[in-house]
Structure formats: structure tokens, C-alpha cells
Design a protein that fits this description.
mainly alpha; elongated; 0% strand; 77% helix
Length: 70
């Protein structure tokens, strides 16, 4: 997990901000995919991949914060 420690905060926050909120209009993909997940309609592999791709920076930021601040 040392590679997570080597990631810079600005890079993670920039990538996280971009991927979480992309596309900006009409609504971010992560919002759409989370809605599909709660409704039980997230069944296509491309939609599952899209959710994982857009959520991955959030997971990395959380892991880095946990490792750095605990």
C-alpha cells in the first residue's frame, strides 16, 4: 500500500473532483449510477464499470486519508 502514500494530494483531489462530477451537465454519472443502484436497475456490466470508475478516486482519497491521519 506504499503506492497510495506516494500519490500526491493535489493529483488525487483533481482526479477525484473531475471523475466524481463528470459529466457536469445534465447530472454527474455517479449520481445517476447510485440512483440506479438504489433502484435495483444497475445490471449492465458497462454501468457497473462506470460506477466503479467514477467512485475509484473517492476510495483512493479515503484510503490515503486513513493511512496518513491514523
Amino acid at each position: 500500500m506504499a503506492w497510495i502514500d506516494n500519490l500526491s494530494w493535489p493529483l488525487l483531489l483533481l482526479a477525484g473532483g473531475y471523475l466524481v462530477f463528470a459529466p457536469f451537465f445534465p447530472e454527474p454519472h455517479i449520481v445517476e449510477k447510485l440512483r440506479m443502484l438504489t433502484q435495483g436497475t444497475l445490471v449492465k456490466p458497462i454501468d457497473i464499470f462506470d460506477l466503479l470508475m467514477h467512485a475509484s478516486p473517492i476510495v483512493l482519497i479515503a484510503l490515503k486519508a486513513y493511512r496518513q491521519f491514523t
